[in-house]
Structures are given as structure tokens and as C-alpha cells.
Specification:
This protein has 209 residues and is α/β, with parallel strands linked by helices. It has six helices and 13 strands. The strands form two sheets. Strands 2-1-3-4-13-12-11-8-9 form a nine-stranded mixed sheet, sandwiched between helices. Strands 6-5-7-10 form a four-stranded mixed sheet, covered by helices on one side. The longest helix is centred in the C-terminal third of the chain and has 19 residues.
């Protein structure tokens, strides 16, 4: 069972629909107690970092998510949900994050022809060969993005996929133990996105076997 956090900062319907297409049972919750027994947690999100953290705070979900990570519960952050995994963000000031993957969220810097902020549309992604959620994903596979900020990992080993932006390699997925994050929207990325979600579901089943 996949527990999807509804903190009011994402289109939960499209995420739940994607998991249903995979035949993966899921439930949507804002209740902290539901995270204590969750087999796997998905944290979707859109919008500004500070608003995302405030939504989690109002629902008393920050510490339950952190405890779940320590217990080894598989966690997947999507879009803003991935950014919230960081230590902090510089979006509209300095804001503390969940601190599950060391690093900071910083603004995208366009520096090449065609670069635009926000970065909206399909981008070719280069996954790391060892990544568990990108297993079976060919280099250069396109995923759908909507973002103005990106995750700058403190440890490059936590980067599980990247894109080229501003003449540099920009992290668009992170993976640290049982904690995963993707900057793109897998629920809007057709078969490639479903493949990523399916790999996460498979990992969660292995952990809970």
C-alpha cells in the first residue's frame, strides 16, 4: 500500500491515478498517524518551497516523515516534494527543509540558447546506472518538467539523474538509501514516468517483504 500525502500543495488525483494504472494499492492522507504504519510514502508537491513546508507543518507531518525515513520506510518526493527533502532552499529567502538528503535548493541559471526559467516541458534525462528507480530507463529518455529551482546535492553520490541546463549538469533526481526524489512529474511523463513509479513500488515491496 502506497501512502500519498495530501498536504494541499499538489494535484493528488493525477498521482493516485498513475498508481492505480500500475495496480498499486494506495491511500491519501493528511493524518500523521497514518505515516507511522505506512509501507511506502509519496510526497507530491507544486509551488513555492516555503508554502510546501508550511503545509506540512500545519498538518503536523514534518516529524512523522522524518521518523519514517529513519525507520527505513521508502519515501518518494515528486517535483516540489523532491525539493522539500533538502536541508534548505533559497527560494524567496532562506527556508529549512526536511533534511533527508543533504543539499540546497537553488534557482536555475539559464546560460545556453533555448534555456528558459521556469523550465517547462520535456527534457532528456540521464540516469545513473546504479539508480533503482531508473532501472530499465534508457539514457536520454524524456520526462515532463515544471520548475524554476533545482536540488544541489552536498554529495554527488546522491544524484540519480540529471539534465543539461545553463551549460551544466543539473540534478533532477536524488536517491539516498530509502529516500528518493524526482524533479519531473512521473504521473505526466507517460510510459517513462510510470516505469519510475513502478520501480519505486517494486522497491517498496522488497523492503516490506
Amino acid at each position: 500500500m502506497i501512502t500519498i500525502i495530501d498536504s494541499g500543495i499538489a494535484n493528488i488525483a493525477s498521482v493516485t491515478s498513475a498508481f492505480r494504472r500500475l495496480g498499486a494499492g494506495n491511500c491519501v492522507t493528511r493524518q500523521p498517524c497514518d505515516l507511522e504504519s505506512a509501507h511506502a510514502i509519496v510526497l507530491p508537491g507544486v509551488g513555492a518551497f516555503a508554502d510546501g513546508m508550511e503545509s506540512l507543518r500545519k498538518c503536523a507531518l514534518i516529524e512523522p516523515v522524518r521518523r519514517a525515513a529513519v525507520r527505513g520506510t521508502p519515501i518518494l518526493g515528486i517535483c516540489l516534494g523532491m525539493q522539500l527533502l533538502a536541508d534548505a532552499s533559497e527560494e524567496f529567502g532562506e527556508h529549512a527543509g526536511l533534511g533527508l538528503v543533504p543539499g540546497r535548493v537553488v534557482q536555475l541559471s539559464p546560460g545556453a540558447a533555448g534555456d528558459r526559467v521556469p523550465n517547462i516541458g520535456w527534457c532528456d534525462v540521464e540516469p545513473q546506472a546504479a539508480s533503482r528507480v531508473f532501472a530499465g530507463t534508457a539514457p536520454g529518455t524524456a520526462f515532463y518538467f515544471v520548475h524554476s529551482f533545482h536540488f544541489r546535492c552536498a554529495d554527488e553520490k546522491d544524484v540519480s539523474a540529471s539534465i543539461k541546463f545553463g551549460g551544466a549538469s543539473v540534478a533532477v533526481a536524488v536517491e539516498r538509501g530509502n529516500v528518493f526524489g524526482v524533479q519531473f512529474h512521473p504521473e505526466k511523463s507517460q510510459d517513462a514516468g510510470l516505469g519510475v513509479l513502478e520501480n519505486f513500488v517494486r522497491f517498496a515491496k522488497e523492503v516490506n517483504a
